[in-house]
Design brief:
Blueprint lengths: L2 H28 L4 H18 L7 E3 L1 H15 L3 H24 L11 H24 L8 H10 L6 H17 L7 H11 L1 H6 L25 H29 L6 H17 L5 E3 L1 H9 L6 H21 L4 H13 L8 H6 L3 H14 L1 H21 L3 E7 L3 E4 L12 E6 L8 H13 L6 E5 L8 H16 L3 E5 L3 H10 L14 H6 L12
Parallel strand pairs: 5-6, 6-7
Antiparallel strand pairs: 1-2, 3-4, 3-5
Length: about 550
């Protein structure tokens, strides 16, 4: 690494340390963990990813979303017992780390693509609402009992008379300062607000504002004894959910900045790095960690040259903690709550939904994701949104749409419904399924093909273009065999065109009685219509 690059990384580390340390102190409150858990997570994430990871932009530390997921999991498994919830948190974080490592070893780096972007956008919006509402009692020093979004919001509103005015004023001033300072380039607003609040802590404490209190940074290994009433199966499920949302957020951040700077994403290596970071953090009783968007964006804006900027940031944060721990313990709690609310406010923008309504695509998915989080909770809401998006996808794929093709020009075949000039030939029917042929739609699609044949008396040749089907499952093969037999009994001939390699191999293995190997080698619809195949040594088109 050159001297210039090293200097740039050192400056980037200085810049982002002022952002990361306040958030590391604030986010554990979301998960009902002590502040030191965030500090441990900060060091574990920055050090492990800096040594193992490959993205020069990624900043791995505690995130608001993972803290909220952890809070929901520990509340479900441990109830109101704080000691049990802390123990469960360590087990879940280590468990998430182990699943990261296993996924990396199995090379499952693209698994985050299973969560559609509308689900993530809606989930992020709903999660931000949940986190902001759950931080409000800390902002106004209000004791609450409800844990779910709507009951908690109602309890906060009903208890407005108990809001402590000094605490509310402190939190609102901190929020105003954070929103104002974010417009000033290269000024760590969170650090400025924390320093200001700490300097005024004696006066604020005299007026009843709660301070952070003692922070125990003594490193100790957790006792991995399973609390009574908890089950390993449930713990495994929650650890998988925690890993999944951490990786979806991390991979999204890493991929975004890699694309912007023409860098390669090494997804499987990132899985291993995130796994090591969470295992170390969990063993030391820290928070779950991932590559959050705010820290990664700040790192990119600071002019980072290599991933070692994260290591510099960890060192600088460690110096700040060692030198100013006594002052850090005097940070007012409303200030930390304001930092969390400000951090999640970037996700509370209705503009993220604008394109889905303008495109008239996935509107139900994004709305369902928001309502799922608010209604069913952080974990169940995410799972419900994913299930809903997959159900809509299956519904779309299972809705049979079969196009009739006609010829334009000398060789091209297009949909007659879209192109009025397309010409069909008497005695010949060219059909194209508009979705991949699979178990949910194979029989309805081929039933439509039968109706097309019956509606065109004298049809002697049926060409089916399977360009949309990368592979064929057993149901599709059986349905094709039934159609071939039915057409053959009527004196018709059946050919398929534009087969993908896997689909062709499946048909060859199936050895359909009325569909020989020669009928599988038509590289285009025109070839199939003319009966012109390809020789064994000639490349097949798709």
């Amino acid at each position: 690494m050159t001297t210039r690059a090293s200097s740039a990384d050192l400056l980037a580390g200085l810049s982002i340390a002022g952002l990361l340390l306040p958030e590391a102190l604030a986010y554990p409150g979301v998960a009902n963990l002590p502040p030191q858990a965030g500090v441990i997570g900060l060091f574990a994430g920055l050090a492990c990813y800096g040594l193992i990871g490959r993205s020069r932009f990624a900043i791995v530390t505690a995130t608001s979303s993972s803290a909220a997921v952890l809070a929901s999991a520990t509340l479900t498994l441990g109830g109101g017992d704080l000691a049990q919830r802390v123990t469960l948190a360590s087990i879940l974080v280590v468990g998430a780390g182990i699943t990261f490592v296993l996924a990396g070893c199995l090379r499952l780096g693209a698994m985050s693509n299973l969560i559609a972007r509308p689900v993530l956008r809606g989930y992020g919006f709903g999660l931000a609402l949940v986190i902001a509402v759950k931080q409000w009692p800390h902002l106004v020093h209000l004791q609450t009992r409800s844990a779910d979004f709507f009951p908690l919001a109602a309890e906060i509103v009903r208890g407005y008379a108990a809001w402590q005015t000094p605490s509310l004023a402190c939190g609102l001033i901190a929020l105003a300062g954070l929103f104002g300072l974010e417009r000033v380039a290269r000024v760590p607003g969170a650090l400025v607000v924390i320093v200001t609040g700490t300097l005024a802590s004696a006066w604020l404490a005299a007026h009843g504002v709660t301070l952070t209190g003692p922070i125990q940074l003594a490193i100790g290994m957790p006792a991995f004894a399973l609390p009574s009433g908890a089950h390993w199966l449930a713990l495994t499920e929650f650890a998988l959910a925690l890993m999944f949302i951490l990786y979806a957020e991390s991979y999204g951040s890493i991929r975004t900045f890699a694309l912007q700077h023409d860098e390669e994403v090494q997804a499987n290596r990132d899985l291993l790095a995130l796994g090591a970071a969470n295992i170390v953090s969990g063993l030391l009783q820290g928070t779950p960690v991932g590559a959050g968007y705010s820290g990664t964006a700040a790192n990119a804006a600071a002019g980072v040259r290599s991933r070692f900027a994260g290591l510099y940031a960890a060192g600088i944060a460690l110096v700040l903690v060692l030198l100013f721990l006594g002052w850090i313990e005097r940070i007012p709690q409303p200030v930390l709550a304001a930092i969390v609310i400000h951090a999640v406010s970037k996700s509370l923008r209705l503009s993220v939904f604008r394109d889905y309504f303008r495109w008239r695509q996935d509107r139900l998915v994004v709305v369902a994701a928001v309502l799922g989080v608010l209604t069913f909770g952080v974990l169940n809401g995410l799972l419900a949104a994913i299930a809903f998006s997959l159900a809509l996808l299956l519904k779309s794929l299972a809705s049979p749409r079969l196009s009739v093709l006609g010829r334009v020009g000398a060789h091209d075949y297009v949909s007659v419904a879209r192109f009025a000039s397309a010409v069909t030939v008497p005695g010949m029917l060219v059909l194209r399924p508009e979705q991949p042929l699979f178990f949910a739609n194979a029989e309805p699609l081929l039933a439509q093909a039968r109706q097309r044949v019956l509606g065109a008396p004298g049809t002697r040749l049926v060409v089916l273009s399977l360009e949309e089907s990368p592979d064929l499952d057993s149901t599709a093969l059986e349905a094709l065999e039934e159609f071939c037999s039915w057409l053959s009994a009527r004196g018709g001939e059946f050919r398929v065109a534009r087969l993908k390699e896997l689909a062709r191999e499946a048909l060859l293995r199936a050895k359909l009685a009325h569909l020989g190997a020669a009928a599988l080698d038509y590289s285009s619809v025109d070839d199939a219509v003319r009966g012109e195949g390809v020789s064994p040594n000639q490349p097949r088109g798709t």
